[in-house]
Amino acid sequence: MTNLNVSETALTVNSLRSIFSMSLKTWPDGTKIRVFVLSDDDKLHKAVSKEKLNVFPYQLRSTWDRLVFSGTGQAPIRVNSIEEMRDKVINTPGAIGYLWRANIDENVNVLQIK
């Protein structure tokens, strides 16, 4: 799901993986992408990693750590709860994150994954 100001309605798995691996940094309109994630051991984070991104959570962590330690990038912003994830995505222009289907409402855009 994304902030309402993000015009994208669908992404390929490769684009989504590029966003969450922090290599794709801007939306097509030039807005900076702000990535929000839950902790590595969170059930939803594990599900999104495996089922949507087709990678294991430890692979994402390794990619983020490499960016941080090499000084070439930064890790996504970690939130502590589903509620914080929802609030951050709603209130941050260019934001992307994930929620359980039951937590999604009209205050966020739902992305179709192709």
Return the CATH architecture: 3-Layer(aba) Sandwich
Radius of gyration: 13 Å
Helix-strand pattern, N to C? Answer: EHEHHEHEE
Helix content: 25-40%
- The tally of helices reads 4
Count of the separate structural domains: 1
Q: Termini distance?
A: 14 Å
Give the overall pLDDT as a whole number. Answer: 95
- How many beta strands in the DSSP annotation? 5
Can you tell me the residue ranges where pLDDT is under 50 for at least 5 consecutive residues?
A: none
Under the CATH scheme, which class? Alpha Beta
Helix/strand layout:
Layout (H helix, E strand, L loop, with lengths): L9 E2 L1 H8 L13 E4 L5 H10 L4 H14 L6 E2 L3 H10 L3 E2 L15 E2 L1
Parallel strand pairs: 1-5, 2-3, 2-4
Key features of this structure:
114 residues, alpha/beta, D-Maltodextrin-Binding Protein, domain 2, three-stranded parallel beta sheet, two-stranded parallel ribbon, 4 helices, 5 strands, 37% helix, 11% strand, globular
Describe, in short, the structure shown.
This protein is of the alpha/beta class and about 110 residues long. The chain has helices at about 15-20, 45-50, 55-70, 80-90; strands spanning about 10, 35, 75-80, 95, 110-114.
